[in-house]
Design goal:
Among the domains are: 61-172, Immunoglobulin-like; 187-285, Sandwich (Immunoglobulin-like). A hairpin with an 8-residue loop joins strand 8 and strand 9. Helix content is 12%, strand content 35%. The relative contact order is 0.12. The chain has helices spanning 2-28, 49-59, and strands spanning 68-69, 72-76, 87-94, 112-118, 125-127, 130-131, 136-141, 147-155, 164-172, 187-190, 193-198, 207-215, 218-220, 231-236, 242-245, 254-257, 264-273, 276-285. The chain starts with a helix and ends in a 24-residue tail after the last strand. By secondary structure, it is mostly beta strands. The strands form four sheets. The protein has a five-stranded antiparallel sheet with strand order 1-2-3-7-6, with no helix packed on it. Strands 10, 11, 12, 13 and 16 form a five-stranded antiparallel sheet that branches. The protein has a four-stranded antiparallel sheet with strand order 5-4-8-9, with no helix packed on it.
């Protein structure tokens, strides 16, 4: 009897001990992880900052840097350029459905403008291929020297409200010898014509550039060309970001040009006179063009009052 009483008391003691431990565990509770940060106010599906930045960057990519955009793709059929006699250069623009685009909106008298330039910004050409019924563009084309060339297609599909500029590299085989970019200058010569540039580029803002043409010291009035008095293409040195602008009025060669960033640019002005189209080229920077003063106008000594050998 005494033995059973002892066992019963022992069992009751264990119940009390384990019950106390369980109660302590409930009181302390397990370690909880911090709650996740709430989504942006009013938007349970707000994108992460990196996603927003990437989207914004894509939306502001300058023209010509991409081979594809908004479902459209520039696809060369010809894979190399000729450095001898002109050979057919063929390409297609594929639409979002993967099929060649066959309908375009005419801009400045042409359905598509093709720009060809070497990667060092030499050998510029602005030409206009013809379109076949199957959506293949073609033009006889040759370049002067070997190298890697950038081919830009500037066009507007008929079912799109805005134009596109797509670019792709196409090589010309041979001994490639890059040329240094000419220094910035206010004037340039082409086929006996003198072309003068007034105004400076401004990064991220519209800048007024005015060009004047003269021959033998007399002003020249350019003839209408592709629905304008002239055409200006700007390419950024390094990556060849593309800008194609037209005059602000029909009577002058004044352009409102907005380049995407600070840096060095090559400007190409197409103008027509006596029935022939010519291209005047300039190097320009967003910091302005500094033309050295002639020797007679330079001071005889430095600003510190001392001459130096």
């Amino acid at each position: 009897m005494r033995t059973s009483v002892k066992l019963t008391a022992y069992a009751l003691g264990l119940v009390v001990v384990f019950g106390a431990a369980a109660g302590a565990g409930r009181a302390l509770g397990p370690e909880e992880k911090p709650a996740p940060a709430p989504a942006a106010h009013g938007d349970a599906h707000a994108p992460a900052p990196d996603e927003t930045a990437a989207t914004a960057a894509t939306a502001h990519v300058p023209g010509g840097l991409q081979v594809a955009q908004d479902g459209y793709r520039l696809t060369p059929v010809t894979t190399a350029l000729s450095t001898g006699d002109p050979q057919p250069f063929r390409f297609r623009v594929l639409g979002p459905d993967g099929k060649p685009v066959t309908a375009y909106t005419t801009n400045h008298d042409k359905d598509l403008h093709l720009i060809v330039v070497r990667r060092d910004l030499a050998g510029f050409q602005h030409v206009h291929p013809t379109l076949a019924a199957d959506g293949t563009w073609s033009i006889p084309l040759a370049v002067d020297t070997p190298g890697q060339y950038r081919v830009f297609a500037d066009f507007q599909p008929a079912d799109r409200d805005e134009g596109l500029t797509l670019g792709v590299d196409v090589p010309a085989a041979g001994d490639y010898r890059p040329r240094p970019l000419p220094a910035p200058a206010r004037t340039t010569e082409v086929d006996g014509y003198t072309v003068t540039l007034a105004g400076d580029l401004t990064a991220g803002a519209s800048a007024q550039l005015t060009l004047t043409v003269s021959r033998d010291g007399k002003p020249v009035v350019p003839e209408p060309y592709l629905g304008a008095s002239g055409h200006l293409v700007a390419l950024r040195d390094g990556d060849l970001a593309y800008l194609h602008v037209h005059p602000t009025d029909e009577q002058s060669l004044s352009f409102a040009a907005e380049v995407p960033s600070a840096g060095v640019y090559r400007l190409y002005l197409d103008f027509k006179h006596d029935g022939t189209v010519r291209t005047a080229e300039f190097t320009a920077t967003t910091s302005g063009i500094v033309v050295p003063a002639p020797p007679s106008a330079q001071p005889a000594h430095d600003a510190d009052g001392h001459t130096h050998d």
